[in-house]
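User: Show me a protein chain along with its predicted structure.
Assistant: Here is one chain, sequence first, then structure tokens.
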Amino acid sequence: MSLAFQIRVARTPRIEALGVLVHCIACAGLATGASFLLRQGGFGAAVALSALGSVGVLWSWLRWRRRCPNGRLAVDVEGVVQWQGVGEPVERLMPRRWYVGGQFAWLRVERLDHGGHLDLLVDRAAANENQWHALSAWLVWLERGGRT
């Protein structure tokens, strides 16, 4: 069995919904904190919490959108990992952490050519069964000491 595969990584509507949900939970937490402060008579603190929290959530949302890239992840028969973002050159990657759960797979990969890292979120619905199976098999191979 070959471990070679290619899979598309894109912000699908389900990934967008996941991001919205996480940020809505953060907003709800901020609103709860602000209402608690208001009940305690701390109008200034509530306004400050709301303002700082809103800026923080907005910053987090924009950062999440920028760091959730679109492109193509490819693994060759020897286990060499490559990434090509939309309109970008191909670069080599080294997987560092990953998690596969239900309908999504998250991979944190080190960028060998440019430095830094990428967080890739793969939606199972955006891949065919063979691609998803190959991705899962490759991650199991890595976990069992495969070449990285």
